[in-house]
Amino acid sequence: MMRETVIQPRQLIMPYFVTQGEGVRDPITSMPGNYRWSVDTLLDEIQSVADLQIPSVLLFGIPESKDAFGSSAHDPNEAVQRAIRAIKEKFPELVIVSDVCLCEYTSHGHCGEIVNQDVDNDRTLPRLVEAALSHARAGADMIAPSDMMDGRVGAIRSGLDGEGFDHIPIMSYAAKFSSAYYGPFRDAAGSAPSFGDRRSYQMDPANGREALREVIQDLEEGADIVMVKPALAYLDIVREVKNQFNVPIAAYNVSGEFAMVKAAAERGWIDEKRIVLESITSMIRAGCDLVITYHAKDIARWIQE
User: Fold this and answer.
1) Is 23 exposed, middle or buried (0-12, 13-18, 19+ CB in 10 A)?
2) Cα–Cα distance for residue pair 171/286, rounded to 1 Å
3) Taking a C-beta distance cutoff of 8 angstroms, is the pair 208, 237 a contact?
4) Is 1 part of any domain?
5) Cβ(150)–Cβ(174) under 8 Å?
6) Model pTM greater than 0.85?
């Protein structure tokens, strides 16, 4: 009766990796229970999300071919765009969030266009806008730019509004840190940088005040929801954002956090259910309105039980 914090399925977003082909259900070894799905198999899988009353999914694309510019990110026939159309037709009530970044689509694995061995922020922005528009045209309900280029929220907002998509909200990866917790995701998406790292555009894990400046910038440019990523090691940032801004806040319970729990649980070192529920409760207690987590289906089942 006196419990202050409660997890509900409506707070959860389930992420998926979608690729080309048919009948594909390719296991991601570093993320047990997760797969690279083709559109047809993903539709069968998403039925379970709808049955568990999880209201939203987040889609990441794995293209057949990559180039230096991430050109396929805005291809209307790429896997994410096809998946959006198919999901909307079969599950019209499901909220589809589409990740907008170039790292999965570039041959070098960085999140933007490379000039002189460095990511060129301003030359990347039009490419992000093109990708966002292609997702909106396919039927995405929300755009989630994760690249951390300065000015990308404003550019995407302007691009969406200019084509009549002013009703589509933006969930910005506002405080995305250059973290070691992303390893399994990069394995799943084949998006590890081929040279250097992403510290020039993602945030230093030591910087809390900078995170608040990033949030302010994204809100001023038109973000509707701001995200902190990763979650567990950055709950102090979630609380600071909650204290200072009256806006919805999301956190991403990322692949490394998921994989560590799975690995320890498989060895019998921890109680997976208790650890997961405790972790997600801490995120909501810290101030999260939404949690993106690979545990979403398990959590929803446990709540039903």
Assistant:
1) exposed
2) 19
3) yes
4) no
5) no
6) yes
pLDDT greater than 90 at residue 187: no
In a domain, 4, yes or no: no
Whether residue 184 is preceded by a cis peptide bond, meaning omega within 30 degrees of 0, is: no
Range of the domain at 278: 9-304
- Active-site residue, selected from the candidate residues 66, 176, 262, 297: 176
pLDDT at position 244 is 96
Share of residues in the chain with pLDDT > 70 (%): 99
C-alpha span between 299 and 273 (Å, rounded): 8
176: annotated active-site residue: yes
Cβ neighbors of 226 (< 8 A, separation 6 or more) are 171, 172, 174, 175, 215, 218, 219, 241, 245, 247, 248, 249, 250
pLDDT digits (tens, 9 = 90+) for 19-56: 999 999 999 999 999 999 999 999 999 999 999 999 99
CATH at residue 266: 3.20.20.70
> If we measure between CA atoms, which residue out of 192, 241, 177 comes closest to residue 213?
241
pLDDT band at 62 (very low <50, low <70, confident <90, very high): very high
**Cβ-count burial of 183 within 10 angstroms (0-12 exposed, 13-18 middle, 19+ buried)?**
middle
116: left (phi over 0), alpha (psi -120 to 50) or beta: left
Residue 3 lies in a domain: no
- Beta strands 12-19 and 56-62 are parallel
Number of structural domains (the chain) is 1
| Cα Rg of the chain, angstroms | 18
Is residue 289 in some structural domain?
Answer: yes
Give the separation between CA 270 and CA 248, rounded to whole angstroms: 32
Q: Which helix (H) or strand (E) is 61 found in, with range?
A: strand 56-62
Q: What is the mean pLDDT of residues 239-245?
A: 97
297 is catalytic: no
Q: Which of 229, 242, 262, 273 is catalytic?
A: 229
